[in-house]
User: Which sequence fits this backbone?
């Protein structure tokens, strides 16, 4: 899949072959929804927290005697029935909202969203983006130049993907409401969907291939998209020693059990 490469002025400077296993992936909306739901849930923090009657300060003494006052019997001023008392079944900060998604599913969802951006004409590739010093005007000029390619580049949200974290680009874009900057190694499904347009640097492709194309078993892909050979780690001496120690311990336990039986 071939795409046109532009410079900062919006001029064509060449073409680039996009890897098909990243930018030509078809996936259902269910998988993308699962990836977004998992990401949002894992970012959620359990902040709300209430104290029960045993955690609230005070309330150790019985308010009044059991009988003879005419009032209802009570054993503590920190009972949930009292104002200032503990809370029954209130929210606790120990709650865990995290969800799990398989690595391959997460990877496929990411590639599917990138594919939809390319096919929908909301993707543009740049050769480089060099900003010598942080200036908001510089990013505004780039977005204005790229509006020749994608008309909504200035009016709708644009995600700028850089090969690595660039401080000048991030500082230049942080005051622009419709622009966000993210490193290729931190790319995720939610940020892609939250932005209408995607502007990617050419060198970000190599970073994506190294970051996102690792399977569960550890197989990687090279720049051409083919599976690259990954050296298998040899078992270390420490691991062998641990295994031998475990085997020896099991043998001694078996021998001691046999002696006791005899």
Assistant:
């Amino acid at each position: 899949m071939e795409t046109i490469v532009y410079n900062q002025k919006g001029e064509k400077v060449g073409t680039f072959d996009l890897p098909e296993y990243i930018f030509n992936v078809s996936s259902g909306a269910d998988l993308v929804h699962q990836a977004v739901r998992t990401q949002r849930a894992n970012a959620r923090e359990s902040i709300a927290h209430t104290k029960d009657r045993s955690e609230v300060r005070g309330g150790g003494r019985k308010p009044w005697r059991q009988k003879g006052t005419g009032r209802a019997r009570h054993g503590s001023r920190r009972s949930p029935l009292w104002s200032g008392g503990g809370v029954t079944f209130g929210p606790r900060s120990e709650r865990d909202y995290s969800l799990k998604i398989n690595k391959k599913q997460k990877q496929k969802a990411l590639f599917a969203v990138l594919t939809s951006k390319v096919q929908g004409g909301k993707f543009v590739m740049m050769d480089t983006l060099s900003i010598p010093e942080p200036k908001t005007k510089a990013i505004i000029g780039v977005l204005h130049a790229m509006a020749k390619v994608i008309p909504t580049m200035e009016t709708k949200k644009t995600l700028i993907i850089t090969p690595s974290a660039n401080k000048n680009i991030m500082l230049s874009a942080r005051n622009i409401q419709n622009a966000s900057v993210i490193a290729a190694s931190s790319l995720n499904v939610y940020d892609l969907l939250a932005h209408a347009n995607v502007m990617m640097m050419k060198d970000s492709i190599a970073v994506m291939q190294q970051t996102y194309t690792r399977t569960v078993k550890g197989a990687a892909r090279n720049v051409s998209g083919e599976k690259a050979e990954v050296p298998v780690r040899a078992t270390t001496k420490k691991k062998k020693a641990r295994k031998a120690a475990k085997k020896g311990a099991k043998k001694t336990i078996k021998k001691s059990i046999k002696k006791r039986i005899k």
Notes: The radius of gyration is 30 Å. The longest strand covers residues 12-17.
